[in-house]
Amino acid sequence: TAPKAYLVRPSFGTLKPGESQEIQIILQPQQGDMSKDANNHRFLVQAVAIPNNEQVPRESWASFPKDEVQEHRLGVAVHQEAAAPEPRASSIPTDAPQNLKEEYDKLVQYTLMLEKEKKRLEADLNDLKGHASSGGDGFSKLTLIIAVMMAFLASYSAQFFSR
Predict the structure, then answer these.
(1) DSSP secondary-structure letter at 21?
(2) pLDDT in tens, 60-111
(3) Whole-angstrom Cα distance, residue 109 to residue 116?
(4) I need a surface site. Which of 37, 123, 124, 137 has the fewest CB within 10 A?
């Protein structure tokens, strides 16, 4: 009855027979105290049998015959606690931003920036690997061959002149 007041994840999905799914429902921070009105809110849970456990897109629900769709309404009950609850990793902090979309967009931008930096670092690493395998700061193969030949000639000439 108040879809914008809650964050539900996942909001839809397909389950195999006997399978279960944990759903996270979070009351969004709003102007004023929504918890008073929340006791009047309800959730509609719908289910329909499908062949072969295929995924059903959200748009397809309107095409199912009403007599095949099972529905169950869940009422919301908000309980005020005397003491503040222990913070959990999944709870939204009280200073959470009013607009979660803005925070999501910031996270997406940060992720894209990290991916770009990763690609740059991988390219630098590949350049360094290519530089090292081509002889880079070491001796080239030609230099090593000339040095071996010089050592051989030096030892041969030392034997020749010592006689």
Answers:
(1) -
(2) 888 888 898 888 888 887 766 544 444 454 444 555 556 777 788 788 888 8
(3) 11
(4) 137
Q: 51 by DSSP, 3-state: which?
A: helix
| Residue ranges covered by each domain of the chain | 6-75, 97-132
Whole-prediction pTM value?
0.43
CB 41 within 8 A of CB 1: yes
Can you tell me the distance from the alpha carbon of 9 to that of 107, in angstroms, rounded to the nearest whole number?
Answer: 18
C-alpha torsion angle, residues 57, 63, 67, 68 (rounded to 10): -30
Contact yes or no for 14/35 (Cβ under 8 A): no
What is the C-alpha to C-alpha distance for residues 26 and 34, in angstroms, rounded to an integer?
12
CA pair distance 43, 11, nearest whole angstrom: 11
Contact 46, 67 (CB under 8 A): no
Q: From residue 117, how far is each of 127, 145, 156 by CA, in Å?
A: 15, 41, 57
Q: C-alpha angle with apex 116: 114 to 121, nearest 5 degrees?
A: 90
57 pLDDT higher than 70: yes
